[in-house]
Amino acid sequence: MAAINTTPPRFRGVEPGAGRPGSDDLGRQQERRRGAFLLTALGLALAASLVLAVGIGAVRIAPATVAGVVGHVVLGVPGTPPGTGSEVAIVWQVRVPRVLLAALVGAGLAVTGATLQAMVRNVLADPYLLGVTSGASTGAAAAILFGVGAAFGDNALAGSAFVGAMGASLVVFLVARAAGRVTSVRLLLAGVAVGYALYAATSFLIFAADSAEGARSVMFWLLGSLSLARWSSPLAVVAVVVLGTVALLLVWSQRLDALAIGDETALTLGVSPTRLRAQLLVVVSLCVGAVVAAAGGIGFVGLVIPHVARRHVGAAHHRVLPVSALTGAIFLVWADVVARTVLQPRELPIGIITALVGAPFLLLLVRRFHAASA
């Protein structure tokens, strides 16, 4: 069965100005300048967002106080940190880990979404596609409701979710390669099938549990929560995995460009589509598994953010990936601010906020495809 290519022209690895003699060098220089400016602007926006987000909450803390506390602890600025003792504790022990986890989760979901869209050549792909999120949810539900994963100790929830995510990825890969070569269509169909099966398993666990409180906890976690953020695990694990994933994918950016064009083109460029998809599947599963284990199921970030990045920097992944990472980090930091402040003192699952933003975007994307095909 031939894959239907729904990829828009900007996503096919064609650089602006290509094929026009005399314009290539100038076009590349302009692209580099625009890319450098955008990355600098996004970096500054992320730094400002981190400081402002830490100060927002039930107890409002001035940005100067936040910066002073962080500078005192991290940089060893001499003297007494600004603010009261309770403000210092709130900033450093509660909010800074949470805001940093939000940034890391947003970056991880965004870059894995961009990678999956190149892997399966489908602009509607996101980390939910391969059933990784569903596997993590099943593992977390088993840990919360039935105590599975007790060997992980205090990290039973995160550990069980991670094992579930990796197990789902393994099943998807084995099913996709059962007929031989791993193709984008097989990955897509296997991911959807495994995801639905694991969603059914999670629902069964919820209904089979005797604890109503446990069922509510699972439902809240399934929609995403950053309440597990601590200076130790899972923040440290997520930081290592996400930063390592971004770095590795940047090294592979040209291979991703070739894969996004098509398998035949990738082969002519010396890239094995089957081997690269297997490698990317392992990397993406590791990253998504760590992220979902720490923050639950957060949808639409991996779908929306890569499209925003491509709209501003084109299709080349050496620009798409860093822009996606920074944009995803900023987006999720502010989504978390809304989730924990809009109904104070109660906290909304962050997945509700991302869905409220992502669903209208998906409708606009469908309308765009309809207009383009008309």
From TrEMBL:
It comes from the Bacteria. One of its GO terms (cellular component) is plasma membrane. Its main location: membrane. Keywords: Cell membrane, Membrane, Transmembrane, Transmembrane helix, Transport. It is found in: Cell membrane. It holds the Pfam family FecCD. It is a multi-pass membrane protein. SUPFAM superfamilies: ABC transporter involved in vitamin B12 uptake, BtuC. GO terms for biological process: siderophore-iron import into cell. Residues 1-27 are annotated as: Disordered. The chain crosses the membrane at residues 36-59, 99-116, 128-150, 156-175, 187-208, 228-252, 280-305, 325-343, 350-369. InterPro entries: ABC_BtuC-like (IPR037294), ABC_transptr_permease_BtuC (IPR000522). GO terms for molecular function: transmembrane transporter activity. Belongs to the binding-protein-dependent transport system permease family. FecCD subfamily. This is ABC transporter permease. It comes from Egicoccus halophilus.
